[in-house]
Amino acid sequence: MILYDFEKAPNARRVRWFLAEKGITVETRQVDLLGGENIGPEYLAMNPRGLIPTLKLDDGTVIDESVSICRYFEELHPEPNLLGRDAKEKAVIDCWQRRAELDGLYSAALAFRNSTPVFANRAVPGCAEPTEQLPVLVERGVMLTRRFFNLLDTRLGETEYVAGDRFTIADITAFVALNFARWIKLSPDEKHTNIARWFEAVSARPASRA
Amino acid sequence: MILYDFEKAPNARRVRWFLAEKGITVETRQVDLLGGENIGPEYLAMNPRGLIPTLKLDDGTVIDESVSICRYFEELHPEPNLLGRDAKEKAVIDCWQRRAELDGLYSAALAFRNSTPVFANRAVPGCAEPTEQLPVLVERGVMLTRRFFNLLDTRLGETEYVAGDRFTIADITAFVALNFARWIKLSPDEKHTNIARWFEAVSARPASRA
């Protein structure tokens, strides 16, 4: 199998981190996302959605959603468990993973993709059709990212990690979201002391540098 | 447990359909999404994200992502299986579920929320902060929905159902996305014959009327 990767891409980092927590090594191929290689004819022939990361299995199956790639490896390498063990834990981890992704990571991405010059006419990730940047979406992305900071800080005042009392995929997504937000000069406020405590603990994990 | 529901909401329909496929009955409470009850103080005290559907467990745990709610019930009631049985199937179903959701349902929602008068200043689902409608996002949502139609039709030319040779959660999401797109007068083209074949087959399922 091959993992199509781009070192700087937040979504690609999520998958690399997940694999590193499990001690899994996969053959990777770098795709130049900044240069638009992901929406070039060769890559689109492999994956019409143009997304990175993408896992291509030996039988040709293409899995191009970060969480779905993680789910594949969780099934093959169950330990350490990062997606939950019983019905409630699986649902809660999945839910927090999605909150961190949809409210956090995608909001930061909205602001980033609509403001960074290299993504002019590529405001929608993976979309080969030209999509212009809309300054009003930067403002919206910033507002929604700040809203996520508040949600996350409240949560981390109640639990040690994002989805409960242990490290899971929800922490990976939330951490990557926060790190991505820095690219648009957006950080939690001084008042977000719970985030600060958690961020330091998660930063110390060796796999965070994958 | 209580399922907070709104009969007309596409996301709520996904969960009701999933439950109906499994023959599960849950106590529900209707929340008036059109009237803004979901971003009123009472509902936000229960769920600060203001989203519907939301499942509240007896211990107070709040699960407010449709797919996470489905995952919870899949674990408790494994048959009929709708999320996959082995690593590859789980990953492929999850991936197609997400494609249908992110590329299909969310794109239709982008166009719908930015154009429907009742959602003036509520363009972002669940967001209590006023968010104005942006006409340019209607155009973008329509473009992305059409892009999804092409992706889906190509897929359904290769497989009987969205994620493979049997009905899964990916069919529910894709079907609800297509149905939602009709609200903004958007339907697959004549050329999308694979979608037409599949749509008719899936429509015939009794649970589709849940």
Explain the overall architecture.
The structure is a homodimer of 210-residue chains. Chain A contains seven helices and four strands, in the order βαβαββααααα. Chain A has 210 residues and is mainly alpha-helical. A four-stranded mixed β-sheet of chain A has the order 2-1-3-4.
Give a brief rundown of this model.
With 210 residues, the first copy, chain A, is mainly α. Chain A contains seven helices and four strands; from the N terminus they run βαβαββααααα.
Major sheet details of chain A? 4 strands, mixed
The run of helices and strands of chain A is EHEHEEHHHHH
Please list the strands of the largest sheet of chain A in the order they lie side by side. 2-1-3-4
N- to C-terminal distance of chain A: 19 Å
CATH hierarchy, class of the largest domain in chain A: Mainly Alpha
- What is CATH's topology name of the largest domain in chain A? Glutathione S-transferase Yfyf (Class Pi), Chain A, domain 2
Large-scale geometry of chain A: globular
- Beta-strand content estimate of chain A: 5-15%
Task: Count interface residues per chain for the largest interface.
Answer: A-B, 40 and 40 residues
Provide mean pLDDT of chain A, rounded: 97
CATH architecture of the largest domain in chain A: Up-down Bundle
Would you identify the regions of chain A where 5 or more consecutive residues have pLDDT less than 50? none
Whole-number total of structural domains of chain A: 2
With helices defined by DSSP (H or I, 4 residues minimum), what is the helix count of chain A? 7
